[in-house]
Amino acid sequence: MQSFTKVSFPHDGVALLSIGTEDGLNPLSIAGIKEIVDCLDRLSEQPEVRVVVLTGGERALAAGADISEMENLSLMEMKLKNQFRDWDRMAWFPKPLLAAVRGYALGGGFELALLCDMIFADPKATFGFPECKLGLMPGAGGTQRLARKIGAGKALSLLWTGDSVKAEEGFQLGFVDRVAQEGECLNETIDFAKRLAQGAPLAIRAIKEAVWHGLDIPLLAGMEMERNLFYQLFSSEDSREGMSAFREKRAPRFTGR
Ligand code: CO8
Questions:
Q1: Which of 46, 125, 138, 253 has the greatest number of beta carbons closer than 10 A?
Q2: Where, by residue number, does the polypeptide cross the bilayer (predicted)?
Q3: Closest atom, ligand 1, to C-alpha of 162
Q4: Which helix (H) or strand (E) holds 147?
């Protein structure tokens, strides 16, 4: 069977995880999601990989869950498949995960983009949650992540109507982080990833944890978590290196220790 995922290394420290095909709609089967998670698990264990860019093809990141796989499943069959365990594992990926969306990101495809740390989008990228039109709703975090990013009312409007929006509107709403020049989305995302790959890996991870975990907890608990992460970085070699390099007016050489 042809693999749903492909990993390449366009630059030192940057892994590109591509799903589906360039011109496909790339529906997300349960096995496809498992493949993505297995890839991310492997990439999380490779110290030379500092940042991951997730992309699909020109036509779609993914047009949602594979409807042909879902349509005949009973409630109990769906529950027993326990697919959201894989989605939850994806959200624990500790390194920066950047989505480069060039075409459709619908339903589960939109959820996949939303669980990345940042969304870069081509102007023609199209985002939406059509589940309601199928008598369904998002199940892999879509209602939660979108509402946290853009507020309940705007999220409800997209979720209830199933209307899709292009990148620029997604940017105005607040869930697209960068709209790329036409045709340059992948390059621009990789360029940003290159910058992160040169940064201090432990600090970058700690910042990711502080921001995402912090959004789920009260402010004072978040401040305490931030402080603990800040203290921990003082035991890293990279913090010594970063501060010495600053004093010596040279570029730092971070090793991730
Ligand atoms: N699953 C299975 N097949 C699909 C899907 C899909 N999500 N999307 C499109 N296809 C198939 C079509 O059935 C069609 O097949 P065929 O050629 O055999 O008729 C083929 O792909 C091409 O599709 P279109 O002819 O419709 O292509 P267009 O270019 O005209 O339109 C669209 C492209 C706009 C993307 C359109 O196909 C569309 O609206 N697709 C459905 C999108 C949708 O409803 N997505 C939500 C799915 S539900 C979901 O994601 C729930 C998530 C729950 C948790 C996550 C679990 C993974």
A1: 125
A2: none
A3: 44
A4: helix 142-150
